Records
---
Amino acid sequence: GAVVSQHPSWVICKSGTSVKIECRSLDFQATTMFWYRQFPKQSLMLMATSNEGSKATYEQGVEKDKFLINHASLTLSTLTVTSAHPEDSSFYICSAPKSGETDTQYFGPGTRLTVL
Amino acid sequence: QKEVEQDPGPLSVPEGAIVSLNCTYSNSAFQYFMWYRQYSRKGPELLMYTYSSGNKEDGRFTAQVDKSSKYISLFIRDSQPSDSATYLCAMSAYPQAAGNKLTFGGGTRVLVKP
């Protein structure tokens, strides 16, 4: 399989501050990465598609000015939650697609965000 | 109606039993079918990948796809307590490497009791 990492794995911040989450593909290049949000006991909700060298594509209802995405290189995408509020507390997961025998998305370990 | 339907469970089975999971879908264009396992507070891990119809076996896991019925299944033989997790089905009409989205089921929570 492929390896995708996320950093940090867990972050606590105060309301009103910004938090940056990194997603890296460790052993392959990814021109596209995906950012998901997951609430407890619920499935993954796609937030946006991160595109290397161009603007991210956001899903309906996701505020692009609040969730800033930057795909700086072929192995790194970042999600910045700006002016975080308690309702932004959630589990954020990224994924990156890789071609090969199993042409599918590989997920990072997730980042748990708690906003106080 | 959701594009992919999956019973949320929980599904509780004794150790050693066969776990049977399934998803139904409505989009006949789906060709790529995946099963992911997700432990609590972890990212999903790819278990099985199937293209088009048919069966695929990998160790204790068997994935089946019936495109005529728009129905996919995952069987886990000789279940272990370590198989306790949430299982997500996912599917797509196009290759993932091209950056196309996956459509997920809601996930089924499985509990294997010792």
Note: The mean pLDDT of chain A is 92.
---
Amino acid sequence: GAVVSQHPSRVICKSGTSVKIECRSLDFQATTMFWYRQFPKKSLMLMATSNEGSKATYEQGVEKDKFLINHASLTLSTLTVTSAHPEDSSFYICSARDPSRGFDTEAFFGQGTRLTVV
Amino acid sequence: KQEVTQIPAALSVPEGENLVLNCSFTDSAIYNLQWFRQDPGKGLTSLLLIQSSQREQTSGRLNASLDKSSGRSTLYIAASQPGDSATYLCAVSGNTPLVFGKGTRLSVIA
């Protein structure tokens, strides 16, 4: 199956700094990628839809200036958490579908990134 | 707005038992439903994908069913093993990206 790679898997940063998380589709080109956030023992919440070559679409309540998304190529989307605070600590996961297989096919997920802000 | 509910939230069974996990969704206008497995601190592993036109899918000891009209899906795990211990998530895809349930945390006791 298609592979989505996410890096880093774990990061600890100081309050006020910025952290970049990368999501790559390894064997297909993804015009659209999705970023999710997961709180402990909670479901995955969609944060934003990343669109190659255009602005991301953010879900209601997600601060676009805080969670910067860039989708500069067909295989890479990045999520930057700016001026991180301890409440940003969470598990972030990206997802993509292989568009060549159709819009209603299986979604593949990255390994996730555990962010801890101290 | 699509809402996905999973019952039970947690389940503990002895090794070898067959078990059923339940998933329900409020809007039946879906493209497909996907079951995932998540190990602690890890990403999601896709287990089964059921298209809206399908009734069930099987993979090894796993069988997933879909009743779109009633908004329900079940994941059946046969002859459970300790290695099956994980959180199982269902998610539906419609006109919006995947909407997830909160998951069922499964523990299989040796």
Note: The first strand of chain A starts at residue 4 and ends at 7.
